[in-house]
Write a structure and sequence with these properties.
The chain is mostly helical. The chain has two domains: about 80 residues, no CATH class; about 110 residues, no CATH class. The protein contains seven helices and four strands; from the N terminus they run E-E-H-H-H-H-E-E-H-H-H. A two-stranded antiparallel sheet has the order 1-2. It has a two-stranded antiparallel ribbon with strand order 3-4. A hairpin with a 4-residue loop joins strand 1 and strand 2. Helix 1 crosses helix 3. The N and C termini lie far apart (about 65 Å).
Length: about 220
């Protein structure tokens, strides 16, 4: 909230007072905004352009934020009403498990949250096939071990895509560079990591295409 105070001869202009006046008098349906402006000019005995600017700025800002809040409120209320209208099966029934599995198995990358078109980079089967975890690329799967809580090789569905040798990231040992700010060195390491990611993904695309062509 913008807290604006402008000293005038008659009285001080405070944001909270203007907002309270708008809440008590403004009616969106009757479109009385022009009347609100004029009434506030009269209340504060506005004489100069600078005084008028303070009033105008407060009104515009508050109404903009108020409209945003009202829009969000309406969207959430509509979503809630639509959810209430949904006819869902009772929990723990076979129908409920089938619906749950369908929702959880949608091809969404766990990291970047985008829907995967085509074959995922990697697919993990969890809870004995009750639901699956997908990654769209090598880059998104780099921290999959932390997400899964450790090793996940036994959960990989598409193991055939990872039989080929893969580039291995060297284990760099760096000294503390936070003090001397070795910017060029940091940039080179970042560039190396990006190139390595591209190399791995290109190798994956090549082996996947070869795997698919063998099937046909």
């Amino acid at each position: 909230m913008i807290l604006v105070k402008y000293n005038t001869i008659k009285m001080d202009i405070f944001t909270k007072d203007i907002q309270e006046f708008i809440d008590n008098n403004y009616c969106k349906d009757s479109n009385n905004l022009k009347e609100i402006y004029n009434q506030l000019y009269e209340i504060y005995d506005v004489k100069t352009d600078s005084e008028k600017y303070v009033i105008d700025k407060n009104i515009i800002y508050y109404l903009t934020e108020k409209n945003k809040s009202d829009t969000i409120y309406e969207e959430r209320r509509n979503k809630l009403n639509n959810l209430k209208k949904l006819k869902l099966p009772d929990q723990r029934t076979p129908e409920w498990y089938a619906l749950r599995k369908k929702i959880l198995n949608k091809n969404i990358c766990y990291d970047c949250k985008t829907e995967i078109k085509g074959k995922p980079w990697i697919t993990l089967s969890c809870d004995e096939g009750d639901f699956f975890v997908y990654c769209c690329s090598y880059k998104c799967s780099k921290y999959l071990g932390k997400y899964m809580g450790g090793s996940y090789w036994d959960k990989i569905v598409n193991k055939e895509d990872f039989n080929e040798p893969r580039p291995v990231m060297p284990n760099f040992k760096h000294k503390d560079i936070t003090c001397d700010f070795e910017r060029d060195k940091i940039l080179k390491e970042l560039e190396y990591e990006e190139k390595l990611d591209e190399l791995v993904e290109k190798q994956y695309d090549y082996s996947t295409d070869e795997f698919i062509s063998d099937d046909y």
